[in-house]
Write a structure and sequence with these properties.
The protein has 519 residues and is mainly alpha-helical. It has 4 domains: 103 residues; 77 residues, no CATH class; 94 residues, Tyrosine recombinase, N-terminal domain (DNA polymerase, domain 1, Orthogonal Bundle), CATH 1.10.150.130; 174 residues, Orthogonal Bundle (hpI Integrase, Chain A). It is 57% helix and 2% strand.
Amino acid sequence: MDTLSKMIEKIFQNPSKVRRHLHAPMFRERDDFICKMHQKGFCLRYLQITADYLFFAVNNLNIGPNEVVSLERIVQSTSRWYTSKKGDYQATVLKWLDSLNILDARYNDETNLLVSFSSVSHYRVRYLTYPLYQERLSYLLQCISIGMARSTVREQAEMQLHIIDVLKLHSPRIVCVKELQDASSSFRSLKSRNMFMTTAQRWLSFIGILNGDSEPTHINGYNYVVDYINWARESKGLSTTTLNGREHELKTLLSFMEQKSLHLSYINLNHIDEYIMFRQNSGCNRKTIATIVTTIRDFIRYLRVNNLCELIPDQIKHPKSYDLDTLPNCPSWEQTQEIIGYYDGKNDALSLRNKAIMYLIATYGLRSSEVVNLKTKDIDWKNNHILLRRAKRGGLQRLPLVPIVGNAIAEYIKSGRNNDIGSEYIFLRSLAPITQLSRTAIYVIVSEAYSNTDINIKHKGGHSLRHACATHLINSGRSLKEISDLLGHRLLDTTRVYAKVDISTLSQVAKMDWEGLIC
């Protein structure tokens, strides 16, 4: 009798059950997995349960030779498992298929934002297989791009699943605010109901399926915001972008006041201070706070003119803001080299792509948009030049193609890129639809490299490497004009902030003989 039958007989005493396991598909693959579990010291009962899980899986998944099993098929198989241990069954099947290298690649794609939210198999599969996958992911990436904290984005991702369940939103359809209000009653706490309403309105508006005629009038005072926005549009000629930003900020203010059981008619400076502190604790910097105060002050001025509140708007002061008052937030050049080397030595398609992106940003100080908009025709391999499309200054800029960057791009195009779809863009998504990489994907790629280090800086996206590049150049003796040209700045003043990290020049100033200069 072979090794398999001995193992089966060891964990099962029933001959008929042994025969069923022996004649089920993929018996050797199942046996190898069970043997490894046995060698790790798992008890007999655990081995029996594992064997039953795998037996059930192969009879329900119908796995073909060398066939990759999708997560959707695993979820469907899980739904057929007849006991309450569905989570244990699913986790076991995922581990087994992963050990055979036939598991859906999405499950281990660490550059996927949804995958990064949880290492628990059940939650990870939920994030990846729930309806409206692309609609959920695109919204979450947008949240990250505007600076939302990662923990908050994760809460939004979990709430998206609740929204789908409560609304039975298995495919895109128009949803009205009244439906959201009715659905929010299923949540017990006020905090959960507010988060449901806020997330649902923002997400469904973002993907274009929220009824545009149903504004969130359930927020006390929202009608005043609508009147103010219309007045500002007609009387002040503010742009649509500015008006949208002000409307969003005032909605946040109204929601904050509603939670405090306050009304606009009785708003005072203490309430404003409390709200500003709330926004500051949410991660807003001084310049953002100044913009928020400007919006609130203009809104209060409108309310006062219309006899809707008594607060004097000029009493609301915003924090002082100074040009060049900050230092570039970036790692040292030694740390930067450690970060950009994160993907070195990895030969899978994702790592080859990510390595080329890291070298591009760190070498040329590119913006995320300039990386994702790079086209195959922009690389002049014959003359070793790269053509950059500047995001802000406009126009094209031709620079020498540094060998380490050129080699990384060439390796990606040769061994990692999907060249069959005929896309003009160099960097592409790894999963369908195979399209141009998004700017927010750059953040995920760079922040993943940071996760392998103990570097403690506030922002860990692609812009930190851009700052690192500029700081390294100025400390290497390059002029502000040269750095400004490389970074694609329209104004030289934009580059002057790096003069504050020009250690070599500043150290010369510190060594000056000041005695003779003082009368």
